[in-house]
Amino acid sequence: MNINKIHHVAIISSNYDLSKTFYTKTLGFKVLAEVFREERNSYKLDLMVNDTYQIELFSFPNPPERPTTPEAVGLRHLAFEVSNIDEAVKELIQKGVAVEPIRVDPHTDKKFTFFKDPDGLPLELYEA
Questions:
Q1: Total of domains in the chain
Q2: Which pLDDT tens digit goes with each residue over 70-117?
Q3: What is the pTM assigned to this prediction?
Q4: Which residues form the VOC domain (predicted)?
């Protein structure tokens, strides 16, 4: 098997319009395609993070809530690399997003912080 890279990350939202606004307006991801899948009563929004990674944002009727406390087994969080974490945090706060204090990874000496999407999915900013 020859795995080249991560192709996409799929996120299910409880409020499609709110999450679409968050990922496109707040985080600034570019819309590649948007499809309504009538057989599933579900939207699928393909988002581009710069030129590398794609996020698929889904809506489904009545999805179960994501367990976060205590943290459940599975994908823990999604991390985005930024060049300047101080500027990125300032921009998120200006857009009304609650952001945890910036910390330093004791193993890499790199700055990082967490915030949440509209459904409480933990998102991380990690300074390159």
A1: 2
A2: 777 777 889 999 999 999 999 999 999 999 999 999 999 999 999 999
A3: 0.88
A4: 5-128
